[in-house]
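Task: complex structure prediction.
Instruction: return structure tokens for all chains below.
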Amino acid sequence: MRRPMRMPLTWLLTLLATVPVLAQLRLPEYTKEQLPNGVTLVMMPKRDVPLVSLHLQVKGGGESDPKAMAGLADITNDLLLRGTSKRSAEQIANEVDFLGASIGSASSASANSLMLEVLSKDLKQGVEILADLALNSTFPEDEVAKELARALDNAKSLKDNPRGAIGPYAARFYFGDGHPYGNIADEESIQRIGRNDILGYYQRMYAGANMAVIAVGDFDPAALRKELGAAFGKAKPGKAYTWANAQAVARGKAPRLLLVNDPQATQTYFQILQPGISVTSADRTAMQLVNTLFGGRFTSMLNDALRVDAGLTYGVTSQLQQRRLPGSLAISTFTANETTEQAIDLALEVLKRLREKGVDAEQLASAKAYVKGGTPTQLVETNDQLADLLAEFEVTGQTREEVDGLFARIDAVTVADARRVIDTYYRTDNLTFVLIGKKEAVGALAKKYAANPVFVELRVPGVKVSASE
Amino acid sequence: MSIRLVAVLLLAVSWCFSQQVEVKQHMLENGMKVLIHEDHDVPNVAMYLFFKVGSRNEQPGTTGLSHFFEHMMFNGAKKYGPKEFDIVLEKAGGRNNAYTSKDVTVYTDFLPDSALELMFDMEADRLKDLALLPEMVASERQVVSNERRMAVDNNPFGTLYEQLNATAYTAHPYQWPVIGWASDIEQWTREELEHHYRMGYAPNNCTVVIAGAVKEADVLRLAKKYFEPIPKQVAPPPVRTVEPQQNGERRVTVYRRAQLPLQLFSWHVPATSNEDTPALAVLGSLLSQGRSSRLYRRMVDGELALRAQCGGNESLDPGQFLCIVAPRSGVEPETSERALFEEIERLRDEAPSTQELQKAKNQLLADYFRELKTIANKANFIGNFEVFHGDWRKVNGYDAMIGGVSAEDVQRVAKKYLTARNRTVGTLIPEKGEEAGQ
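Output:
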């Protein structure tokens, strides 16, 4: 494989700011309404294949995890597949598998989701199953115990793959414990979760006021509206979740560095983080274009310098989080132990060059074409992509204008706009560095980038980001 | 559930497939095959070029050359110099990637329909006149070394899988890793790269699949203009070595600092084109597809493993049926291994019920159908069927192929292939003493 640049989830949102080259992109028609109990129904009929994607979304997600119990939202959501008042876990699995349906659970920073894809002819049964899972889950004691033990082992095994482990360490170190995005599930937080916490979370959050059901695919709207109304009309109204009102992480007064020691590592994974934007920021389109040029595609400034010219890495990206709250902007890559210093220095040099030189009209035009050209297949090609997009609107408050107006917004970005966002966001002062690597080989570098580096061990329980924990 | 209802359900799943995937086939004079699938859902195009050359065409000392070559195909040709392939394509709104396996090297282009002719021009340029500049070889060598460190050395699965193959195969080239041994990556020469180019990249060794917002006539015109003038060459010589029959279990152990053990199990099975492939697919589905599958219930739900998955890989030569088991903490690898073997024995000794068999078929067919949702997947599918099943038309016969598998077929292939003497077991054992302070 030539490209490591598989799009991180945050990028999918970033791609909201994009459209095809020839025509304006326009979302297919859809309807949206609210049931008396607060459940939001969104329906987008699309008749190309005889399949329907159903997406149940509950607001909250990782943001709604209690401080000491990170992982509660995710675990509760996974347990929806483990037994209701009508079906045992085994019956759920049998029924879904027999239909050839696919079901998945996911918990993002701001929402929990169940995604069910069924053949159009099985839609009625699909709606009934989805509503049963959402509204009648019973959280059998043995299933809860198994789920918690499984989550614990998953958290442990994450440490065996530093590529996967760098994200949680970076998030916790950058955002800090007090911020919802820094409240990271680990072995310790999972061990604090009990069945009562799960039941409490379920009763509080899986209420009509927090719930949206999105359907995209080949269906009869009138018939489906009736099914959805009957099934989800039974949800108790409950109380709407109040979003956490977290402060954006401010740039520190000094650089910070965390080195997570992996004694057997032959390479160092590192991220260099600084404050970014929220998904609704007025700067999102200009940022999308600048970030594409800086580290969002193969010919980006970072990848060209670190991979293509210097051969220091297999790939390097600049990751622009686009979430409800302002997130981070992070350079992310890996390199051999012995080239760690060279790679970090070169990444910083490329950042400095971006600040000094900005981007010119030709580069900006290329970024615009690139972003527009990829959008149709990355955002609106399949039913599930569209369902995810419509679900995301429910969290961010965005509307179809986010997609329908993309072309115009992209076209409107000027070189001066790019200059302005570079000045504001792509800075070289007081950065946050997070490394997973062999301390014996790269530990001596730490002080070069931050006066008071923090050293922790990878293979101790939990995602530790301070030496005293 | 009644038998009648079961039959109705299968019928419904099959109905999806009765919407045939339409492909127009053309053979250029130089032997390059062009397959065109029109789909105007989005204004984009996926172009996949399949070359029948992979690590099976390599030798000891130059392992990994095919994969390295895949990287070099982006590093400059006659018209589009170093970096220009990517710069020009991205500026036109497109992007690309590529992958190499044991059997094939595949170049994948994703573009807005407006960039179609440009894409043909750029692909023809590198097929005809690749530059292989020494400075690019040196830099790319380091990129691949970094890729190897990431995918193998710093990854428990990568480490174990490499050792498993080196143990399961004693003679056939499937024994070495696609990315190559580290020492080979450091040493291959420009002459060896040139030889590989001439051998593998003959137009007559290539099938190109174009799926998306195109018109057949336009594609054909462009193919004739850009691809047809590339001269025919001698295709790679046949891989002569046949892996001798395995007559006893083989085991390999890898010690590594890790939180949890990992197990891989491999059985030799025929090439993908063999008639037993559909039965093996159903067998894999019964074992591990979905939460109602046998291994999920016994091992994951039964708290023996975090995951337990089995299935076959596509291969031109006799390949392997592989199971991956990640034992839970505190579970001895012997325990999870025994559970896996018992489930395989059970499939061998007792026929699955009609309903369970039907469920597995429904899952396979629905999954397969889901694969056809995007133009990129369609291009990959059509190309894979052409290369590994010998004919893209079999895409449209998949439902019948899976539908025709009987309970007896499943038992027969389990008895024939999933035997103790035909298996290789790889176990990754966490080393003690990795905790801080020890």
